[in-house]
Amino acid sequence: MTPNPRQRRSRNIFASNMAANGVVCSSKKKIQNGKLILKEVNGKQNVFSEQAKNAQLLETKSSNGRPPKKPDRSKESFEEVPLYTAVMTYLGFYLLMFLGYINQLFFTPKVAMERNRDGYVPLFDRFESFYLRYVYRRVRDCWNQPICGVPGAEVILKDRITKDYGWTFEYTGTYTKCLNLGSYNYLGFAEATGPCAEAAAEAIKTYGCAMCSPVQELGTHPLVLELERTTARFVGTEDAIVFGMGFATNALNLPSLVSPGCLVLSDEKNHASLILGLRLSGATIKVFRHNNVSSLEKLLREAVVYGQPRTRRPWKKILIVVEGVYSMEGSVVRLPDIIRLKKKYKAYLYLDEAHSIGAMGENGRGVLDYHGCDPKDVDILMGTFTKSFASAGGYIAGSKHLINYLRVNSHAACYASAMSPPIAQQIITSMKIIMGEDGTLEGKKRIMQLARNTRYFRQRLKQMGVILYGNDDSPVVPFLVYMFSKIGAVVRTLRTRNIATVGVGFPATPLMEGRIRFCLSAAHTKEQLDKV
């Protein structure tokens, strides 16, 4: 039967979409029983049925024969604090402090008093103890809320009350189901059912719950080895090493890479795990302004010209430390510019992709994929499995020489327990779904759904006139409320509407920049986002 012009036109459109995505198709193609048969795709014979119906999922580049227009990756917003808001924020904070000192002086409860400490100096920092007891305590109910079950698109909160203004809590025995915008579940893999959960359960039957030993002793098992190979293939490096804790991946590996006599240039908004690791290393640390390439280049130039203080000897090495997506700001690193400076001044680059791996880029491979950069241009690639993969742990990827060095010298590799088998299996299964190795387009669908949700949610909030921070493509959405009291008010009000989210204030953020942080997921529907 001769196809009509409409059928020929639709087949030509699909073939051009495939070609635009780097898939080489031979000229011999036909349709049988509703299936598009391509005689040769990248050297292999292939059959597309459901894929043909979902061709728009693969349509990521222009198919008009011209080079695709490079998207603008620099649309970020950081609105300055209005003067009136700044004045009111400071007044409100100092009023809280004043009331706290009055409370401490006249109404100190028994739970806040230490016993058998006569003659001892305070064990804890005096101001820190005061701040936790008399400032943070007033909004303590907004944090550390116990949950029940899987933190997916919705989450079940365990209800609690306080009868002494936040000093202690009691559980009521009731539960509240809320829309979840407080968990890092970017691709929606936090599920109680499905291929990931089933594979993890099977791993428990085969290998048990834990190895109870470091990798270098008795902790190695086949899933860890498979995970390391899969991770290296996913991020595009020679090798990778995995660890059971994301925070420790930074804190315990950085001291193995830099030491006294080395210079580290760190972004001012870097995560606490990076800061702790750098402090433990003993290296000299200089901070550059957030995502500011000019500030970074100035420090690099001075480091190369002047060398170490007093001696003026050259630094042993210079390491630039940045994140892919900054979890408090929602901003995306200006990676191409930083790679250019790294090459110009012969510095090393450490990239933390905890919040970007899986969540950014057309293929979910992080900011390298997002900006179209070569993984070989980054010396040390770090990431965690707690966000996009709905699991736990972290990885470092790079050259074979680097990974072999870390296997021997890293404290996390030598002393920490090996990754649990079900945890490793959860990561392997979700990572293969993202790469499409499960034979479906489920991973691509989730990546595109997260991108749509992010754009839509940010656009709707901006239309309402609220102040947002960060990049338009970042799934972390900081919503500025500024005042300390407003953080508690917004979190509590949203909870009465069955919406669970996270408030962030001083000292986790600057005093002037209290915020509500929304974390979006591919599991959220448009109706759920409209409700928020």
Structural description of this entry:
With 532 residues, this protein is α/β, with parallel strands linked by helices. It folds into two domains: 83-113 and 122-174 and 443-531, Alpha-Beta Complex (Aspartate Aminotransferase, domain 1), CATH 3.90.1150; 195-435, Type I PLP-dependent aspartate aminotransferase-like (Major domain) (Aspartate Aminotransferase, domain 2, 3-Layer(aba) Sandwich). Helix content is 39%, strand content 18%. It has 19 helices and 19 strands. The chain has a seven-stranded mixed β-sheet, sandwiched between helices. A four-stranded mixed β-sheet has the order 5-6-7-17, covered by helices on one side. Strand 6 (154-161) and strand 7 (170-180) form a beta hairpin. Helix 3 (83-106) packs across helix 4, helix 7 packs parallel to helix 16 and helix 11 packs parallel to helix 12. The chain starts with a helix and ends with a helix. 36% of the residues are buried. The model is unreliable at 5-69 (pLDDT under 50). Its cofactor is pyridoxal 5'-phosphate. It is found in: Endoplasmic reticulum; Membrane. Belongs to the class-II pyridoxal-phosphate-dependent aminotransferase family. It is an enzyme of class 2 (transferase). It catalyses: L-serine + hexadecanoyl-CoA + H(+) = 3-oxosphinganine + CO2 + CoA.
Would you give the CATH topology of the largest domain? Answer: Aspartate Aminotransferase, domain 2
Helix content: 25-40%
CATH class of the largest domain: Alpha Beta
Count of the separate structural domains: 2
Question: Overall pLDDT, averaged?
Answer: 85
Number of helices: 19
Please give the largest β-sheet. 7 strands, mixed
CATH A-level architecture of the largest domain = 3-Layer(aba) Sandwich
Hey, roughly how much beta strand do the residues contain? Answer: 15-25%
Low-confidence stretches: 5-69
- Strand order across the biggest sheet? 8-14-13-12-11-9-10
Fourth CATH level, the homologous superfamily of the largest domain: Type I PLP-dependent aspartate aminotransferase-like (Major domain)
Structural class, please?
A: alpha/beta
Name the shape in a single word.
Answer: globular
Q: CA-to-CA gap between the ends?
A: 53 Å
